[in-house]
């Protein structure tokens, strides 16, 4: 695939076992444009928005209206990548009808190309209903942040023999339910490797080791824009948060000293018009 060819659900599925897939989060137009220009295959409008964008302690505090709003902004900034939008907590748990309506809004109003749904066996019916509505679904198992209350926190999953087998079963079930790809979050690398081999759809890892068909990270972590906590699986490729703070501090200092704005940042007026208006040119201007 060339860097100008649009990424689609079929082209993602076709990358199973081939060139590894890349996915980063974005929640607004500006970051979406940057990720797309960088050649990212998929842009995830994640419900991580609640934490890194809105300052909440978990992902439960962002609703469907907010996700539609941010997905629409991201979609405007993307020309090539596949936009995948998270189904937020509460938008699909109650019934199939809610799930289909919510997913449809993310595509019709948000202009996403696919949705992502967290969970395994307990959400298979919801996923099947969404897929029957011709809406592409990416699955998500392992650490599922919307289940943080049940899990007792953000903890690595699949570390016992029973849990590993259950995760592999869920991976197969999600493929059978119609998912075109599968996120594996915070699971031991050997379990992720086995899950990747067990299914015919691409796996996208986050804290799942090097053997998945692709990798996803939160862009604010990658760029050093979020420092409340740093999961072990995050690699920071830049420290833009520090650079931004320094730039803002320089702005404050120049405003207070009078160095900004300078003549090059100000607009002038024709001298005759200035006199006709009864205004005097300040000395030195």
Describe this protein's structure:
This protein has 285 residues and is of the alpha/beta class. It folds into 2 domains: 230 residues, Phosphoenolpyruvate-binding domains (TIM Barrel, Alpha-Beta Barrel); 34 residues, no CATH class. The protein is built from 12 helices and 8 strands. An 8-stranded parallel barrel has the order 1-2-3-4-5-6-7-8, surrounded by 6 helices. Strand 1, helix 2 and strand 2 form a beta-alpha-beta unit. The longest helix is centred in the C-terminal third of the chain and has 18 residues. The N and C termini lie far apart (58 Å).
Summarize the structure.
The protein is an alpha/beta fold. It is 40% helix and 13% strand.
In helices, the fraction of residues equals 40-55%
Helix/strand-derived class?
Answer: alpha/beta
In angstroms, what is the radius of gyration?
23 Å
Largest sheet: 8 strands, parallel, barrel
Instruction: Output mean pLDDT.
Output: 93
CATH class of the largest domain: Alpha Beta
- CATH fold type of the largest domain: TIM Barrel
Our estimate of the beta-strand percent is: 5-15%
Helix and strand string, N-terminal first?
Answer: HEHEHHEHEHEHHEHEEHHH
Total DSSP E strands: 8
The neighbouring-strand order within the major sheet is 1-2-3-4-5-6-7-8
Weakly predicted, low-confidence segments: none
Termini separation: 58 Å
CATH architecture of the largest domain: Alpha-Beta Barrel
